[in-house]
Amino acid sequence: MSSNAMTIQDVAAPDRTWTQVLHEWVTTVDHKRLGVLYILYALVFLVIAGFEAAIIRIQLIRPHNDFVSPQVFNRMFTMHGTTMIFFVAMPILFGFANYLVPLMIGARDMAFPRLNAFSFWLTAFGGFLLYFSFLGGNGLYGAGNAPDVGWWAYAPLTSRAFSPGHSSEYWTIALLVSGFGSMGTAVNIIATIISMRCPGMTLSRMPLFAWLNLTMAGMVFLVIGPLTAAQLMLCVDRYLGGHFFDTQAGGSATLWMHFFWIFGHPEVYVLVIPAFAFLSEIIPVFSRKPIFGYPVMVGATICIGFVSMTVWAHHMFTIGMNSYANSFFAITTMVVGIPTGIKIFNWLGTMWGGRLQFKTPMLFCMGFLFQFLIAGLTGIMLSAAPFNWQLSGSYFVVAHFHYVIVGGILFALFGAFYYWYPKIIGRMLNETLGKLHFWLFFIGFHLCFDLMHIPGLLGMPRRIYTYEPGRGWETLNLLVTIGAFIQGIAILVFVVNMIISYFKGAKAGNDPWDAWTLEWSVSSPPPAYNFASIPTVASRRPLWDLKHPEDPDSHYD
Amino acid sequence: MSWCFREDSAANGKDVKRMSDNSNDVDWKIICGRMAGVLVLLAGILFAAGLCLADSPKDNSVPSIFEPRSTPAESIRHLSFFVLSVTGLIFAVVFILLAFAIVKFRSKSGDRGGEPAQVYGSTQIELAWTVIPILIVAVLFAATAQMIHAIQDAPKPKEAVEVTAIGHQFWWEFRYPKLGIVTANELHVPVSDPAHPTPTFLRLLSADTDHSFWVPQLAGKTDLIPNHPNETWLDPHETGLFLGQCAQYCGTQHAKMLLRVYVDSPEDFNVWVRRQQQATNQDERGAAGRHVFETTACVNCHAVGGTNGTGRFGPDLTHMMSRHTIASGAADNTPENLRLWIQNPDAIKPGSLMPAMKLNDADLDALVRYLETLQ
Fold first, then answer.
1. Nearest-CA residue of chain B relative to A344?
2. pLDDT at B1
3. A472 falls within a domain
4. Residues B259 and B355 in one domain
5. Could you tell me the CATH number of the domain that includes residue B209?
6. Which residue from A19, A546, B51, B242 has the highest number of Cβ atoms inside 10 Å of its Cβ?
7. Does some domain include residue A9?
8. ipTM exceeding 0.85?
9. Residue A310: which CATH number?
10. How many domains does chain B have?
11. How far apart are CA A220 and CA A213, in angstroms?
């Protein structure tokens, strides 16, 4: 099957001019190309938001530093946060879902290819709009360009009184637009997984990757709504004289907080569940064992999906809710730790008794397990509301969520890059550079984010452009900045590796990792139509069945 | 649905044998133990080194949440140690399992062909690692809920000092309604004797955006939200100066919205109260400056008792020389800093809402001399 596919693809590749190639990419409705577009787009923004992080860290390298003005610093952390969440993490994870879900469930494309392209371009347009604020945000007011209200943009800081000019509009409308894109993709992923599975692939035979992305898409579908509603209300306030969040006219600042965090907290799981999906594919292959406790993994994921919808106000323990509300959100937050813990144990169970191969993808997954464990435990600390009254809004929280997003999600993403790059490009990433990338990033990460917890415990709030000397924060901030730059160097190694391997990497072949899911049954890169004939599966690991006809999984299914 | 344990038939015999040949269990245990030990030690050293780098002197200049000097902060530390030990224990167990798996099940260069035993799951084990976390959560929640109630629903005794704190961009207004005092940025409260507690209860309001009142050694933070009054309380057991700052992003100068709480002995507090209640000193030395103050834009934002200045947009200056700092803690309260602050506020606090007053030198000198009389 796969050799046929190769031949056909080679024949259908005449020489084209670069304009033709560009036209093909811009007008494509192919899920693989859109997946690649999502990923490239996100990588560009990763570098931009990385530079913003570097500016933040240089400014904080010593007390009373004046590398940038407070206004610029405030724009940098707003843009860094907004970009990383909405225009790096979400698109890159959508990109992998787009590329891999149809291949893994034996489909030729997503359910709605045109909606898919539309969604991508909406998201892309949102990102460009946000960055256009550097040019257009000043408006006629000279009130400063890019948004500087923080990535959660608490009211009433976003009202016209406190945020003149147009910067807040760019923030609001960029998120509105990309939110519609996210909705489209969520609908598409759900429809694809529900209705496009190949013969024999019952729900209980889907790769966990598909299950987890199904849950993620379901959550996106539910939580983008409140965010969009809040953005529309903010627009009404700013342009039509509404008073939803106008506290001077009886509006409510806490209303915005609720709307934002009922999106914002599930959003964390929207990002981390696809990271779980990568681990659930990579760990079994490099342990040479099937995932431990598949039904429990599915159940735990769906449980996380529901429970994470009930925890949002743990971001708001300091706003003066009554003791019953605080207790409620403390217990729900602690409860969400249970299914998450189950997942960690199941990955350990998968490794237990296996034959672990520490190729780069697996190394990054081990980094994930270690760091996500710590991130989860600092999360438990934050869920204890009284402890949270001290930790909330401090650098401890900044360290905590970077542990989740960098130590967890980004490590899993790097693992995914090393694992699926051969499938997408057709060449292997260099292992030596990969290991250098891992160890540099690992060291930089821990220097940066382990130490970052401590200034928070010593009373350093987040989002301050400078700090007073003599409070015990100086040396720590210096080391944190050094750690940040080591991570920057590691990212450089990663980019170099991707470029070199694109031209010089070893040929991957169909199945370089001896894996078990359907995407490894087709050529690398896969042909435009994915499968010459739609496969039929009889178990969760169709390629295991193929490779071990004497003892296939399907005997036990 | 299979919950079975299956040996890979191709490698069955070999597999089991190789495991017993290659792995000397005692050795592995030692190696894993050492590796785990070394890593935990490293993490410990890193953290300890971090705390040492923080170099905490004993004069409260480091506002550490682990050096509480007031009842709510002490209760929180108590809870935090409990939570830290539970999470620390979970970390140790899971980390040792992970380190053990990584070392023990690493594929060895001698391995050739064949797959390990294919295990799909185990109901008993999975039940165990579901039930145990549920029990842990139950215990953690019980401790947390109790502490939430103890701190948040604490009754206000009759002896309590009442203060209204109002957050402004980017300074703090403190009003003592029962004592008739209005001041800014430097809160004075009496020390509380555990036998006869005199806690301070703060009603938290905001004049503009969200702020948060955080003095780590005295209490956890509580936000000041416009149109949404909140309350918090302090019960300090030690006199001294305690530092904090705004902990909810409130705009350009959020970073320099610093906060100083002076915990005074009952005698000192009474002296301070009497001084704040006095009418303004109408010292002749300040007459020229007072004229400048009353005839420029100063009065639109600032109040001085006994003058036509009644503005509330900026700090009340009636007793401003009783404060150690200006610009919400951004600079020491010296004549030079005052002069600079009036002339060019951006030099001290860029983006603050105090405008540059553009006074000529004579007026500026007179004004600073006047302000110096506001004891």
1. B94
2. 35
3. yes
4. no
5. 2.60.40.420
6. B242
7. no
8. yes
9. 1.20.210.10
10. 3
11. 10
A284 prior amide bond cis, ω within 30: no
Domain enclosing residue B127, as ranges = 5-107+115-152
d(CA B323, CA B372): 11
Helix (H) / strand (E) element for B182: namely: strand B181-184
Do the Cβ atoms of A321 and A313 come closer than 8 Å? yes
Whether A46 is covered by a domain: the verdict is yes
Q: CB count, 10 Å around CB of B178?
A: 9
Question: B358 vs chain A: nearest CA distance in angstroms?
Answer: 22
Q: Is A8 exposed, middle or buried (0-12, 13-18, 19+ CB in 10 A)?
A: middle
Average pLDDT over residues A177-201: 96
**Full residue range of the structural domain in which residue A374 is found:** 24-556
Query: Best of B169, B170, B249 to disrupt the A interface by mutation (most A CBs within 10 Å)?
Result: B249
Amino acid at B323: R
Number of domains chain A contains = 1
Tens of pLDDT, residue by residue over B249-288, are 999 999 999 999 999 999 999 999 999 999 876 778 889 9
- Which residues in chain A touch residue B102, judged by CB atoms under 8 angstroms apart? 351, 356, 366
B223: nearest Cα among A11, A25, A94, A318:
A318
**A407 touches A449 (CB < 8 A):** yes
Asked if A393 lies within 8 A of B51 by C-beta distance, the reply is: no
AA letter at A167: S
8-state DSSP, B331? E
CA distance A129 to chain B (A): 23
Per-residue CA distances from A350 to A320, A418, B92 (Å): 44, 20, 20
Higher-pLDDT residue of A94 and A556 is: A94
Residue B249 and residue B316 in one domain: no
Task: Tell me whether residue B155 is exposed, middle or buried, using C-beta atoms within 10 angstroms of its C-beta: 0 to 12, 13 to 18, 19 or more.
Answer: exposed
A496-500, A525-529, A546-550: segment of lowest average pLDDT: A546-550
Is residue A5 a part of any domain in this protein? no
